[in-house]
Amino acid sequence: MPIWEIRSSKQYLPAASSTTDLSFQYTDAQIAGMTEANLSVWSRPIGQPCADWIELGGTVNADTNTIVISGLTDLRYQYTLADSAPSPTAIDVVSIGAHQTQGSAWPAVLLLVLLALSSGLTYWLRRRGQTMV
């Protein structure tokens, strides 16, 4: 079963007094082996692939192959559909993305290269009986 994530450049949280509804559409192939009438929306925190899935419920419409979950106040989760508690290893990720979380590695690489060159030059000069100025 696919995993969905809500991603935005802004952290979306509805106002304290409002809620959000999400509708998920699935194919018959995606729920093969599951009982459609027993499907539920499950969630876990983004970036925690070993976290337990929490059942949120939902309303299944078998005619349109959709399930709707209502009353959400925080969307910063991963979502999947299953008829029983899913395990992290039993789910295929729809897509995966990567982003750089730290600065470039080039300064560190350059520093290591300069240190290696300096050490090599020092060794070579000492073998010739000279010293570095």
Describe the structure concisely.
This protein has 2 domains: 4-90, Immunoglobulin-like, CATH 2.60.40; 104-133. The protein contains 1 helix and 7 strands, in the order βββββββα.
Could you characterize the architecture of this molecule?
The chain has 133 residues and is of the alpha+beta class. It folds into 2 domains: 4-90, Sandwich (Immunoglobulin-like); 104-133. It contains 1 helix and 7 strands. It has one helix at 106-127; strands spanning 4-5, 20-25, 40-45, 54-57, 59-61, 66-72, 77-82. A 4-stranded antiparallel beta sheet has the order 1-7-3-4, with no helix packed on it. It is elongated. The termini are far apart. 13% of the residues are buried. Mean pLDDT is 76; it is low at 96-101.
List the helices and strands and how they pair.
Blueprint: E1 4-5, E2 20-25, E3 40-45, E4 54-57, E5 59-61, E6 66-72, E7 77-82, H1 106-127
Antiparallel strand pairs: 1-7, 2-6, 3-4, 3-7, 5-6
**Adjacency order of strands in the biggest sheet:** 1-7-3-4
**Biggest sheet statistics:** 4 strands, antiparallel
Secondary structure category: alpha+beta
Summed up, the helix count is: 1
Distance between the termini: 66 Å
Cα-atom radius of gyration: 26 Å
CATH-defined topology of the largest domain: Immunoglobulin-like
What fraction, in percent, of the residue positions are helical? Answer: 10-25%
Class of the largest domain in CATH? Mainly Beta
Shape: elongated
* Whole-number total of structural domains: 2
Q: Which strand-content bin applies to the residues? A: 25-35%
Number of DSSP E strands:
7
How much is the average pLDDT?
Answer: 76
CATH architecture of the largest domain: Sandwich
Order of helices and strands: EEEEEEEH
- Low-confidence region ranges: 96-101
